[in-house]
Amino acid sequence: MEPVKVNILVIGRHEEILETVLRIINKSENWIAQGTLTDEKAMALFDEQKFDIVLLCGGIQEECEAVLRTAFTQKDPEIIIIQHYGGGSGLLSNEIIHALSQRTARQNSNS
Amino acid sequence: MERKDFIRKGLMGTGMFVASASVGSVIKNDIDELKELDLIGFNHLPATESKVKANTVLHKAETRGHANHGWLDSHHSFSFANYYNPDRMHFGVLRVLNDDRVEGGKGFGRHPHDNMEIISIPLEGDLEHQDSMDNVAVIKHGDIQAMSAGTGIFHSEYNKNADQDAKFLQIWLFPKTKNVTPRYDQLTLNVEDRHNNLQQILSPNPDDAGVWINQDAWFHMGKFDQDFATEYKLKNPANGVYAFVLKGDITIEDNALNQRDGLGIWDTNSITIKANSQDAEVLLMEVPMSV
Question: Closest chain A residue to B33 measured between Cα atoms?
Answer without folding.
Answer: A24
